[in-house]
Write a structure and sequence with these properties.
67% helix; 0% strand; 4 helices; mainly alpha
């Protein structure tokens, strides 16, 4: 019988939490940097501080909104051992785009202004998450026994 490796599971859970948080911080800072376009901290430290503070607050707002859909997709990735970067980028970009377009009255058929920026922020969050936790999705699961190939 195959048994679960509790140590690997705990480490993966910690990586998931860290990856999710740092992905949100990257997303929030990306959006804030685009809004403030702050210069180097030595040139304008107040604008830089405002950008960082806004980015962290933005990360918490995005995290609250994205927590449930991201949790579902993370669980799917873990259970199915989806380790590819494409899955994680598409998932995070889809969540960002979905959150951005909720409540938008797109009568003209056009995308909501800023959609490309939001997609880029979602992709960045997905890349950070994949780097930390996504590329090892499902590593805590026991290895499945290899089935012998039937020869002809």
């Amino acid at each position: 019988m195959l048994e679960l490796d509790g140590g690997k599971f705990l480490v993966q859970l910690l990586k998931i939490v860290l990856g999710f948080i740092l992905g949100l911080v990257a997303c929030g800072l990306f959006l804030a940097w685009g809004f403030f376009q702050a210069a180097h901290p030595d040139e304008n430290p107040i604008a830089f501080g405002a950008m960082v503070g806004t980015g962290l607050v933005g990360a918490s707002v995005v995290g609250a909104a994205a927590f449930v859909p991201a949790g579902i997709l993370i669980a799917i990735a873990e259970l199915a051992r989806l380790r590819g970067i494409v899955f994680h980028l598409v998932a995070s970009g889809s969540i960002a785009f979905l959150l951005w377009t909720v409540g938008f009255d797109g009568e003209t058929g056009d995308l909501r202004p800023g959609s490309v920026v939001v997609l880029a922020a979602g992709f960045l969050a997905g890349l950070v998450y994949w780097t930390i936790a996504g590329r090892t999705s499902g590593c805590w699961q026991p290895e499945r026994p290899k089935e012998p190939m039937s020869g002809s």
